[in-house]
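Narrative summary of target 7.
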Amino acid sequence: TVKESSNHVYHNNVLLSESMQKRAENLSETSIQLNEIVKLIGDSTKDANDARDMMQKTTKIVTRVHGQMENLSGAMDEITQYSDEIGKIIKTIDEIAFQTNLLALNAAVEAARAGEAGAGFAVVADEVRSLAMRSAEAAKNTTTLIENTMQAVTNGNKLATTTRDIYDENMAIIKDINVIIEKIASSSDDQARRVKDLDQSISDINNDVQDSSKRAFETTQATKDMNNQTENMKSIVSDLEDLIGRNGR
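Modeled conformation, tokenized:
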């Protein structure tokens, strides 16, 4: 009958409206969770960007220190070179002092042979020999000092080279970390965009569900009104039948 069909439609519309409302609530909860995920991804992206900036600053500092180590190594090489030159000069001075000492000894021998006439010359020869010996001693001490300096420079150069190698290794590690951070930041940005797109899609679906739920409710109300009208019509028809029946008698 019309009433049964109407009741069936009404019942189905009620179930549809309740189902749509429940889906709308679930979608709203999902949208809230997605917003929280978007916030977490945004925080992760910010942390990744901050880490990237920090690594870039660290790279600049390490690069600057590496350059300073190169300059220090170059300066030590120059010191070594100058020390070699000074050592050659000291060696020449030592040789001159040795020759001067020999000449002074020969002069003293000749002065002794000259007797009283060479007494004054002997004094000068002694002074020259004494000066030559002091020069030789000073040259020897200077040579020792230069050798110690060169050894210290050599040790410093080795240390600078080792430090430079360590900085090179650190630079390689920093570059690798930089690449990883760049990938994380890029991935976070991509994930954030995808989640935002998904959130927008869910929001659109939620709006559609809300509209469908509203239409289902309106259809339910219309069906209910139609049921009422059917009941009224049924009552009117019944009254007409009674009236016709009475008149027929």
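The first helix runs from residue 2 to 114.
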